[in-house]
Amino acid sequence: PKGTMAFTGKYEFEGDENYDAFVQKIGLPSDKVEMGRNCKIVTEVVQNGNDFTWTQHFPGGRTTTNTFTVGKEADMETMGGKKFKATVKMEDGKLVADFPNYLHTAEICGGKLVEISTSSGVVYKRTSKKIA
């Protein structure tokens, strides 16, 4: 099968940078801001070539799942629960997606899942360690 299986795995939130500035910039409601702060989100990724299922398990049992194929438009959901359409691209081993008000990239770096969201110059970085 073409494409690396680099992303497949389960990752637990380890740390982030610039959370407050970023969620303020994208206008996340304050109840969601508190919910997401230092939230031990577990991200589960299943990659099959260019097909991805990307699930985030939040404490308390809420989950968000985005299913997409690299290079094809897909229905997605933001961290604030907004539905939108996006085309995820693969650039230099990174997944790149244009969310409604931010650009999101994800890559595997030294066995960790590193996600970077950028909105009007504010860069939010979230790192998760592989647990399975």
UniProtKB/TrEMBL annotation:
GO cellular component: cytoplasm
Any GO molecular function: lipid binding
SUPFAM superfamilies (UniProt xref): Lipocalins (SSF50814)
UniProt keyword annotations, A-Z: Cytoplasm, Lipid-binding, Transport
UniProt-annotated location(s): Cytoplasm
Homology family: Belongs to the calycin superfamily. Fatty-acid binding protein (FABP) family.
Protein name: FABP6 protein
Organism expressing this protein natively: Certhia brachydactyla
